[in-house]
């Protein structure tokens, strides 16, 4: 199944620990049906000091956003501001995304 969300979309988390938080999609991981959302699902990683190619990476605790499943988020319509599903219309080989609630075109 194809992921209908794209980088730059605003989504809201509907289940889990970050429920109710909105954020921008940073990256889409189509293989695992996951997306990375700015400010959601923050994880910490303990980084060792690494020396590679004459540069050293500083040690410490790094905080980063981990991917979450696409089924745990819903798109926020840019026009009506409500949570919505996507409807795809294909014309002349071009796919256009529309809001199911207000019928507004989301792309371009």
How do you describe this structure in short?
The protein has no helices and twelve strands. By secondary structure, the chain is an all-beta fold.
Describe what this molecule looks like in 3D.
By secondary structure, the chain is an all-beta fold. Helix content is 0%, strand content 50%. The chain has no helices and twelve strands. Strand 1 and strand 2 (22-29) form a beta hairpin. The protein is elongated and about 55 Å long. The chain starts with 9 loop residues before the first strand and ends in a 9-residue tail after the last strand.
Q: What share of residues is helical?
A: under 10%
The major sheet is characterized as:
6 strands, antiparallel
Q: In one word, what is the shape?
A: elongated
What is the N-to-C order of secondary-structure elements (H for helix, E for strand)?
A: EEEEEEEEEEEE
């Amino acid at each position: 199944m194809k992921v209908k969300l794209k980088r730059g979309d605003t989504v809201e988390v509907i289940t889990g620990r970050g429920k109710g938080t909105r954020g921008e999609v940073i990256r889409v991981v189509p293989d695992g049906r996951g997306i990375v959302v700015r400010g959601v699902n923050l994880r910490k990683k303990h980084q060792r000091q690494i020396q590679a190619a004459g540069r050293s990476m500083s040690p410490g605790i790094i905080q980063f956003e981990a991917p979450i499943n696409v089924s745990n988020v819903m798109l926020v319509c840019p026009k009506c501001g409500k949570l919505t599903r996507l409807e795809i219309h294909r014309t002349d080989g071009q796919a256009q995304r529309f809001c199911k609630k207000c019928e507004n075109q989301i792309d371009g």
